[in-house]
Amino acid sequence: MSFSEKILLWYQKNKRPLPWRKTTNPYNIWLSEIMLQQTRIAQGLPYYKKFVEEFPTVEALAASSEERILKLWQGLGYYSRARNMHATAKTIANDLGGRFPDNYADLIKLKGVGDYTASAIASICFGEPQPVVDGNVYRVLARYFAVDGPINSPKGTKYFKALAREVMHTGNIRDYNQGIMEFGALQCTPQKPNCQACPLKSGCAALQKGMVDKLPVKLKKQKIRKRFFNYLVIFDNEKNTLLEKRRGKGIWQNLYQFPLIECEKKVGPTEIRNKISEKELLEKVVSVTGFDDMPIVHKLSHQHLYTWFWRVDLGNALPEGIPWKRVPEFPVPVLIADFIKKVKF
Known about the structure:
Blueprint: H1 3-14, H2 26-36, H3 41-54, H4 58-63, H5 66-73, H6 80-95, H7 104-107, H8 115-126, H9 135-144, H10 154-167, H11 173-186, H12 205-209, E1 225-235, E2 240-241, E3 244-245, E4 256-257, E5 260-263, H13 269-278, E6 285-290, E7 296-299, E8 303-314, E9 322-323, H14 334-342
Parallel strand pairs: 1-8
Antiparallel strand pairs: 1-5, 2-9, 3-4, 6-8, 7-8
InterPro entries: A/G_AdeGlyc_MutY, DNA_glycosylase, Endonuclease3_FeS-loop_motif, HhH-GPD_domain, HhH_base_excis_C, HhH_motif, MIG/MutY, MutY_C
Protein name: Adenine DNA glycosylase
Keywords: 4Fe-4S, DNA damage, DNA repair, Glycosidase, Hydrolase, Iron, Iron-sulfur, Metal-binding
């Protein structure tokens, strides 16, 4: 029995009953693949269900506001995925008559759709023999064939794609692609895989060479950047507050936040008050008090945010103030969403 046949047999016995596996509708497959990029299924599944319920078709998603999409996406991270998803929904609904392209070459032209997603949709929905290569597949292939080249290098990416194509099951590509990803998620796990119960153990080169815990190989990540955020939770004399929309190409684009002062290091209430005055952000500041002595450390892939929230009370009314009870309506980073849930006014 070949490698791919063993994967298919294992999949038939062990696959999880996930909702997108009950359909070949490209809209559902596309949604699930976009949401599960860099996201565990346990975390992504509730979001998938929310989106399908509110946007049952690509036309419904295209017609939504970006703000509503970002609100539903809140907490899932990597928000560019949501913005790209909205752009692609508009393209399909408005330019392609509501129909997804039925082949890899045209799918990969869509915004936010890369090699992996195009391969997944083309194979699962349309039976095109395109291999998928995600983190789970890298791990299975690296171990089974004892490949010690780094998976996150241009040379490694090209090598593993070619290897995946060589060993894929073209006769049942839909189940095979889902099967090898599922195999990596459930059987060939990153830590402490149960190799003795593995149906591939007899042919696994890494197991035979004692290399399972050393594969796959990754190049070291770039240096982590430290940033120091100070959010101003402002209250005027009518108990209204302020939110601002993040602009530019940095993190959390188009999400809302409390007015932000970013510093080079930790600062105290006097420095925050001085910076408010320097920037002429507010008038009639009555008091500035911190909510916590210790920062909230929010870790992103390439940066760690050391964050403080400051209550700023004013003696005047804010012309564009927002009642506090309306704050939860806005799409915000999970860091701020957690603060809003925790603090009661």
